[in-house]
Amino acid sequence: MQRLSIFFMTVFAFTILNVAFIHAADTTPEKGEAFPEITMPIPEKDADKAYLGLSGKVAFKLSEIKADVLIIEIFSMYCPYCQKEAPLVNDLYQAIDKDPGLKEKIKIIGIGAGNTPFEVDIFRNQFKIPFPLFADDSFTVHKRVGEVRTPYFFVLKVNADRSNTLIYSKVGTIRDPAQFLKLILNEADLK
Amino acid sequence: MAINRKIAPFFAICLFFLAPQVFGASEQFKGMVYDTGTLTPVDSIAILKTGMKAPDFTLPSISGEKVTLSRYQGKKNVVISFVPAAWTPVCSDQWPGYNITKSFFDKYHAVLLGITVDNIPTLFAWTQEMGGVWFPVLSDFYPHGAVSQKYGVLRSSGVSERALFVIDKQGLIRYIDVHDINRRPPFEALVKELEKLE
What we know:
Chain A has 191 residues and is an alpha/beta fold. Chain A is 40% helix and 21% strand. Chain A has helices spanning 2-25, 46-52, 80-97, 117-127, 140-144, 177-188, and strands at residues 39-41, 59-61, 69-75, 106-113, 133-136, 152-158, 164-171. Mean pLDDT of chain A is 89; it is low at 10-25. Helix content of chain B is 27%, strand content 18%. Chain B contains 6 helices and 7 strands.
């Protein structure tokens, strides 16, 4: 019994240290800094896999996405602003998709903070989201990026060594998709 | 039992670190949501069980209309969503999600009734900030928390639990989820219960 007690106390002590460490590391990466490497499950849909240039079967690292620039929206199905924002982000996707010079270079993903896969599907279907969305039901990614408010947009420029540099890191609406795209292109030196 | 006594404080500390999760993080509610901290998950004693007749009630709604539960009997299934209070983190992050799920309620011939113990003007302002909601929002303000009490979900602090009740067309309770007040119930759990009514 005594051994079991010590075992449990040790496990809990490690848990506390581990969680405290993770919390201490949770700051929101700013422009000029790097977005943290995160691992996510491979999308189920072949179209999403093809869009992101992924070939694995289980999980992938963000740095494996084939893009020069990656736009990440942290959203929630339960967030009214994210619901209002959805058509604007769809317009941004369409603007990129219809430009042959950009569609292979700039990709968009959404990460549903605290949303289950089912809830992410509701959001996807409601707003006919054409780009891949991922569930972050345990808030794992959300914590890695400093528990940002939603919607939050990160734009990463992918470097030659597959590391990345943030060229945009802001909460709130992108306002005008065309202007936002122009801003990204300037910041990323794509045009 | 000796082990439990020894590890209990460690459990409490772990839960303190593990429990907080950022609900109500929508930019829409920035600076408007009161941080309640982490609360006792459930603080009421259940008095209703599935299979029992749902207690009838009449409550005022933000539209000005009074809503009586029994008016739906024989016509619609009813989902009651009790949330603890307006302008608090998880609650501000629950009903806006229901705003884009009307098709599920329609599919299962269900109406959704949202209830809190707040007064009408507060509920009006809060739901306006959400951009409005499609379902009736009822005030259980006076006599304070009377319906919440009838349903066994009134907490000792005077707010209700975060609870879902599914009531079928016969007026019988088919599902009760008195959820951890600090967390949002996943929507699929409710859908699964609505599916069973068909």
